[in-house]
Amino acid sequence: MGFPFSDHKENFRSPALHPLPPLNALRAFETAARTGGFAAAGRELGVTSAAVSQQVRALEAQLGKALFVRRGNRLTLTDAGLSLYPRLGEAFALLSEIAAAVRLGPARRGLVVSVAPSMMVWLLPRLAAHRAAGHGGRIELRAEDDPVAFGREGADLRLTYDGAHYGEFRVEPLFHDRAVPVVSPALWQPGDDRAGPLSALPDERFVHTDWGRHYASHPTWAAWMARAGLARSPDPARGVQVSWSAHAALAAEAGLGAALVPLSVAGPALAAGRLVSPSPVALPLERPHVAVYPRALARRADLAALLAALRQG
């Protein structure tokens, strides 16, 4: 049932606030900062780059601060821009959450969890235990490479390796992993390694993982061989290369060769005997696997409950 606003105005009193800049100007700045340019922001917002630039200049005039350093078509956030951008992104994410809750009510979109593909092996049993413990509600899982977007149609929670892409969000370490060599038991037997681990395996029988141009800290056979005290370094150009650790484990299971795979990925197959490890030497990963989320969502009940479950294991 509706009610006259005038009858309840006392409930809405708040301290005096500074005048808010126009929402369009704030949106133009946030989009330009996130996409890296006025042209990209214009494409996302459905306006011209000149219109975005004009809105940003109006915002700078109202704030009395330069938000970007402009060098040709390149934009760099100033100190003032760096201070405003992350908080503004969180504010828009929160507004989106509020609007979704009002618009959809109990049928809201649920919790959107974006997962680095190779972390899905680690996540799924923990998610199953979380649901079995009585935590319902809709959860949408998205397997995606970094970086991902938050808010609106993006993620509420990101699970990935390292948090370098997400400095403006809350980044919480979950666990540190280590990579181990794995191979199909049909391809390798302990007696094969008279001169050391995997000594009899030709270079063509090694599976190499490259996580892409955003990462330089993924495990390599050269690093593992050095840690194991071996002079050998298999040539990546002669082996099989994959982009996800989960696919490296599957390649090893299929008999394509030996792969260097994080334990969080290889653990189930090792426990089931589908893979074996020819050496106890493990290569620690340089950075932790993390949970990333907007600070504005920290008190969201379903997100907080899932994070609590993930921290435990």
Could you please describe the fold and organization of this structure?
- Strands 4-3-5-12-6 form a 5-stranded mixed β-sheet, covered by helices on one side.
- Residues 1-15 and 104-108 have low confidence and may be disordered.
- Strand 3, helix 5 (120-132) and strand 4 form a beta-alpha-beta unit.
- Helix 1 (23-35) packs across helix 2, helix 1 packs across helix 3 and helix 1 packs across helix 4 (79-104).
- It is elongated, with a radius of gyration of 25 Å.
- Helix content is 36%, strand content 17%.
- The chain folds into 3 domains: 19-89, Arc Repressor Mutant, subunit A, CATH 1.10.10.10; 109-175 and 288-312, Periplasmic binding protein-like II (D-Maltodextrin-Binding Protein, domain 2), CATH 3.40.190.10; 178-284, Periplasmic binding protein-like II (D-Maltodextrin-Binding Protein, domain 2, 3-Layer(aba) Sandwich).
- It has helices at 23-35, 38-45, 49-63, 79-104, 120-132, 221-227, 245-253, 263-272, 301-312, and strands at residues 68-71, 74-77, 111-115, 139-143, 157-161, 170-175, 178-182, 206-209, 240-242, 258-262, 283-284, 289-293.
- With 313 residues, it is of the alpha/beta class.
The total count of helices amounts to: 9
State the CATH architecture of the largest domain: 3-Layer(aba) Sandwich
Q: How helical, in percent, are the residues?
A: 25-40%
C-alpha Rg, in Å? 25 Å
Task: Please identify the top-level CATH class of the largest domain.
Answer: Alpha Beta
**What letter string, H or E per element, gives the SSE order?**
HHHEEHEHEEEEEHEHEHEEH
Number of separate domains? 3
The CATH homologous superfamily of the largest domain is called Periplasmic binding protein-like II
Low-confidence stretches: 1-15, 104-108
Tell me the strand percentage band.
Answer: 15-25%
And the CATH topology of the largest domain?
A: D-Maltodextrin-Binding Protein, domain 2
Tell me, what's the shape?
A: elongated
For the termini, the CA-CA separation is: 47 Å
Mean pLDDT: 85
For the secondary structure, the number of strands is 12
- Main-sheet strand order equals 4-3-5-12-6
How many strands, what sense, and barrel or not for the largest sheet?
Answer: 5 strands, mixed
Report the structural category: alpha/beta
